[in-house]
Design goal:
Strand order of the largest sheet: 4-3-2-5-6-7
Bound molecules: inosinic acid, magnesium ion
Number of strands: 9
Oligomer: single chain
Length: about 180
């Protein structure tokens, strides 16, 4: 993407190089933990698409991948409070396995909580959460992710899979969306 196209609306927060280093550290940790288990990574669409694709290619162990489509935000920057689960993982991929539940960001925790309940109901052996970003805020559900790439403040960020009203997911770095762009 031409940097001039987003420099007016996005303030850079994490560069591509910083993201790469964070991913490598996280992938090493997961590889060590799951090397003998053939885990199933369940990626929450659409936001964790980029994160999941980059992470699995750094995990040289047997693993499986499936998806879940969760949405809560509509077109704004504040969660609507209800989580809609649409596409669900194949029960056979999840049942009796160690599951790594991936999402782009842990904000209110409602999305991961709803996804966790669904995976439990299908019979996952263990569920751990893994997010690209964790917002440093108090939350009622899913207080902490089991694994995270980065912690950030309470800002609305875009890029690296994260969107605002459907845009910016293809930005290769992470940035804060400026107030007047909302
Ligand atoms: P939660 O259910 O409130 O934890 O929100 C999780 C979902 O909201 C994520 O999967 C994102 O799609 C979206 N979200 C939360 N914070 C942000 C943000 O700062 N930028 C873009 N999307 C966000
Ligand atoms: Mg989103």
């Amino acid at each position: 993407m031409d940097p001039a196209m987003d420099s007016a609306t996005v303030t850079p927060l994490l560069t591509e190089e910083q993201i790469r280093l964070g991913l490598e550290r996280l992938a090493r940790e997961l590889t060590r933990e799951y090397q003998n288990d053939e885990p199933c990574l369940v990626a929450c669409l659409r936001g964790s698409l980029v994160f999941a694709a980059d992470l699995i290619r750094r995990m040289p162990i047997p693993l499986r991948i499936d998806f879940l489509h969760a949405s809560s935000y509509g077109a704004g920057t504040v969660s609507s409070g209800t989580v809609e689960l649409r596409l669900l993982p194949e029960p056979d991929e999840v049942r009796a396995r160690r599951v790594i539940l991936l999402d782009d960001i842990l904000d209110s925790g409602r999305t991961l909580h709803a996804a966790r309940l669904k995976l439990e109901s299908v019979g996952a052996r263990e569920i751990r959460t893994c997010v690209f970003l964790e917002k440093r805020i108090e939350r009622e559900f899913e207080k902490k992710a089991d694994y995270r790439c980065f912690e950030i403040g309470d800002e609305f960020v875009v890029g690296y899979g994260l969107d605002y009203a459907g845009r910016y997911r293809n930005l290769p770095y992470l940035g804060i969306l400026k107030q007047d762009a909302r």
